[in-house]
Design a protein that fits this description.
This is Class I SAM-dependent methyltransferase. Keywords: Methyltransferase, Transferase. It comes from Marichromatium bheemlicum. The protein is an alpha/beta fold and about 250 residues long. The chain has 2 domains: about 180 residues, Rossmann fold (3-Layer(aba) Sandwich), CATH 3.40.50.150; about 60 residues, Single Sheet (N-terminal domain of TfIIb). It is built from 6 helices and 11 strands. The strands form 2 sheets. A 7-stranded mixed β-sheet has the order 3-2-1-4-5-11-10, with helices on both faces. Strands 6-7-8-9 form a 4-stranded antiparallel β-sheet, with helices on one face. About 35% of the residues are buried.
Length: about 250
């Protein structure tokens, strides 16, 4: 049976092949620069396989993370172990996470916040983030532009991993311009010696936000001094051509 945004074994394996540790879209360098002045621990919710967390650890930052997918955390822990890095990693979700520390920064790269598709729940999570920050702490997160709501589904893709062939096909099953959500059916297949070994079907849902809408949600949650950058260029304001928006809120 399909589940939404669960990142099971095949989905996590494909993610790790497609977005290996350290692969940057400009975000790793941007986050490293913004956190260089950070005086204390950093939390990365939805840490995934550690694509961003591990390069930040290697730069000497104190970063901890959590993720709802144990499969994704397995990749992250293994990558940390191979590099001799120590990181606090826990299986938790956006809406239920609990941390003993107060953080100097919370970061959510790559639009992972959009996995929360209910706006009321998203606003509640923003309030939880606000409560988990030290006075003067910062929330830094990425969102795809609202225009991506109408983008077509991705083309079929494949990856070779040793003797294995992994494939991914995506079919858009719902696009709701009123709720600003999309839902796609993702079919992952594992092939070996020409035979289909395993199949995994997941539903992948996202919510898209307008720039002003999200700024108002941040202020409602108690954030101030909100800065918005386009395409990981500090000081460059959002435009219709931008592919990613980054919000920095104290």
């Amino acid at each position: 049976m399909s589940e939404t945004n669960r990142y099971g074994p095949l989905a996590s394996r494909v993610y790790h092949l497609d977005k290996p540790i350290g692969r940057s879209f400009g975000d790793i360098e941007y986050y490293a620069e913004r956190l260089a002045e950070c005086p204390g621990p950093v939390l990365e919710p939805a840490v995934g396989n550690g694509r961003v967390l591990i390069p930040l650890l290697e730069r000497g930052l104190d970063v901890r993370g959590f993720d709802a997918s144990e499969e994704m955390l397995t990749y992250c822990r293994a990558a940390c172990a191979r590099r001799g890095l120590s990181a606090s990693l826990e299986q938790q979700g956006f809406e239920t996470f609990s941390q003993a520390l107060a953080f100097a920064a919370i970061i959510i790269p790559a639009g992972s916040f959009q996995l929360i598709t209910d706006p009321g729940r998203a606003r509640a999570v923003l309030r939880r983030f606000r409560a988990a920050l030290r006075p003067g702490g910062r929330l830094i997160l990425d969102l795809e532009p609202l225009s991506a709501l109408s983008a077509p589904p991705g083309a079929a893709r494949h990856w070779h991993d040793g003797a294995d062939l992994l494939t991914l096909t995506e079919q858009r099953v719902e696009s709701d311009p009123v709720c600003q959500t999309t839902c796609s059916q993702l079919r992952y297949e594992l092939w070996r010696d020409g035979a289909l070994v395993a199949t995994e079907i997941d539903l992948f849902a996202l919510r898209f936000w307008g720039v002003l809408e999200f700024e108002l949600a941040l202020r409602e949650a108690g954030f101030e001094e909100i800065e918005i950058a386009a395409d990981y260029r500090r000081g460059v304001r959002p435009s219709a051509q931008a592919g990613i928006f980054t919000f920095v809120a104290r």
